[in-house]
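Appendix B, Record 12. Input sequence as logged:
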Amino acid sequence: MTTRRLRTTAARLLAAWLVVLALVGSSVALVPAVAEVARSTWADVLASTRPIGLLTMSDGYTQVAAIALALAPLLPLADVATSLRRRRALLRLAAVLGVVAIVVLTAATAGGAVPVRARLTSLTVAVAVGLALGALISAALRPLLGAHPAGTPGPATRRLAVRSALGYGAFVALVAFTSRPVDSGVTPLLVRALDRLHTVGFPAWMSYSAVEFTANTVFFVPVGLIVVLLVGLRRWWWGAVAGFVISGSVELGQLLFLPDRFASLDDLLANSTGALLGALVGVVLLGRLARRS
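Logged structural output:
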């Protein structure tokens, strides 16, 4: 695909996605019946996945994640549509989109049982995460769409990646295959801390399950990063695949050999997501190293 055609396609997709978000947001905000149907439908979807151990977090956590994912494509599409150059315009666009999203979503949830402070906190977190994820994808697209997307890491980078892989692999094995969960000792302290945060206005979705899912995501970010530093930009997606395979092997091992540990599809989802994020970070790092060299 030529550069001009790629820019045109990205611009059209961006316009279409903005129209979809505007229509959905305005419908939910202006028509209470639509908001109620959306909430009940989302609850039904979660109810169908939780018996198999998927999306067992609270409704609020999954709603924040959904909003973040809906906002994430905006910056990458705008970046490609503007030839990957107009950075200040994109930053202004991000700020405007963030403010508009918070205002619209606050109006959409007005009158509910959730306190205003908790509602604003949730929406701010969702918008910030969505735009940060979009910025990461946008930064990763630059080296992938550049003149030399098949860049390979140098010998020093690969040696560092090999050492990191050995050390972090041992750490993952230690955490994954101990007879008891590594967080069993700190769980009561964490639960009490979260309860205190809830009393001062933090959203109820910031629960132990939310912290656990987020921690499992962050835990596998180095996996994707290390793999990309080993294989290069052309096969950057191997980082996400490696995270999925390693996590699946860990969950299967826990299911078969560790009766005190619990295999979970949520863990597989979180670990795979973390590895994908790590792979994107690796793409950005390799791109910068290539520009310096």
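Residues 1-146 form one domain.
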